[in-house]
Amino acid sequence: MITTQGSDVQLDWNAIELSVGECPVEVTEYLVFFSEQMAGPFWYHGHTADTTYIHSGAVAHASGMYYHVIASTAPLILMDNLLSDGSEPVTEDIVLETLLQSGHRVVR
């Protein structure tokens, strides 16, 4: 669910519970991506262990916003390391490729 609170957007979703075979998959974080266009590209905005996320200032930033939230089994440190150099924004494709190459599962 997406709601606005002043100039912020609040995203809420149900927790992902998944198993592969008979082994449960433990979601460690949810990755949040945004785009001003439905077709993308989608850009990484942040991550959370919760099922709620605030995109500060999004209402004032664009007339429309689209989101992807992806559940991940990767440790939070992996995302922090990917983005720690402060370089260019990271696309969803780059994040997913990094996670998969690191041996982690993702669920869209």
Supply the CATH class: Mainly Beta
- How helical, in percent, are the residues? 10-25%
The CATH topology? Immunoglobulin-like
Can you identify the CATH superfamily? Immunoglobulins
Strand content: 35-45%
Low-confidence stretches: none
In sequence order, what are the helices and strands, one letter per element? EEEEEEEHEHHE
Q: State the domain count.
A: 1
Q: What is the level-2 CATH architecture name?
A: Sandwich
Compose a concise summary of this entry.
Helices cover 20% and strands 38% of the residues.
What this model shows, in words?
- The protein has 108 residues and is an alpha+beta fold.
- The chain has one domain: Sandwich (Immunoglobulin-like), CATH 2.60.40.10.
- 20% of the residues lie in helices and 38% in strands.
- The protein contains 3 helices and 9 strands.
- The strands form 3 sheets. The protein has a 4-stranded antiparallel β-sheet.
- A hairpin with a 7-residue loop joins strand 5 (29-35) and strand 6 (43-48).
- It is globular.
- The mean pLDDT is 82.
List the helices and strands and how they pair.
Elements: E1 2-5, E2 8-12, E3 18-20, E4 23-25, E5 29-35, E6 43-48, E7 52-55, H1 58-61, E8 66-72, H2 76-83, H3 92-101, E9 106-107
Antiparallel strand pairs: 1-2, 2-7, 3-4, 5-6, 5-8, 8-9
